Amino acid sequence: MVLKWDGHTHTNFCRHGSSSSMEEYLEQAIRLGFQRYTFSEHPPLPAGYIDDLPLMNQLAMKEEELPLYFDQARKAKERYEGRIETTIGLELDYLPEDPDFALRLVDKYGERLEDVVFSVHYLPGIGGNQCIDYTPETFMDKLIKYYGSMDKAAEEYYNHVEAAIEWAADLPCRKRIGHINLIEKFRLALPELDETLVTRRLNCILPKLAAAGAGVDVNTAGFRKPTCERAYVPEWFMGECLQRGIPLVFGSDSHKPEEVGSGWDWFEKTVAQASKRIGENLEKR
Ligand SMILES: [Zn+2]
Ligand SMILES: [Zn+2]
Q1: Which of 42, 62, 164, 276 could cysteine-pair with 94, CB 3.0–4.6 Å?
Q2: Domain chopping of the chain, boundaries
Q3: At CA 203, angle to CA 8 and CA 239, rounded to 5?
Q4: pTM of this prediction?
């Protein structure tokens, strides 16, 4: 039996999510029978990280909100003790210029993180750092035009993912790479990405994850995006992780309470099928 755990969720501190309270999210998780729930909000970004102030304000909370986030999360955790295990975390961006930026803020407010989802949401592009998951148009105009092709942009994305994994190896808490194939978010609206490139890069990443002691956020938000229609983690990759003992953690990436747990049935079924296959292969040997 797999622990019923939603390990990637957002809260009222997300400026591109809903204003529902943490309690509403937890109530929904309990209704669906979840045993563990992780708050993994986006922490503040360095000032001017993106050269677009209105967009910056949507992407992350302000520094003064971080202690309030921890405070509310701790209260919710205590209030729901015995009904659901709640863990306090963040979704840290890998920022190559200053990877420890958010960790210094966490230290400043004296918090100890229980869970970190570390993600690559930004790549250098035309006009500075650009979100890879904002719109297909900005991906085209600011990234594909910068790198020359979809495949070249994807190669650079996976370079950042690899650097993020190396950096995360030192984090003193449970950690997992967020939505490893986020680069596919607009796949149905952008030039086609070479599947063999994806397979090659993900295969090279497997030993790096194992060496870093990092898990995989099996992020189902892609199922909810009409430009993606698949999870951000391929099923074959999940099988490889199971084979190598790399933890798989379901993540709904919910930005509103109704999204909590969405895609869980697919996750549970895929893990069960892959585990069965591994068991059969072992018996054959
Ligand atoms: Zn978000
Ligand atoms: Zn994310």
Answers
A1: 164
A2: 5-122+148-284
A3: 60
A4: 0.96
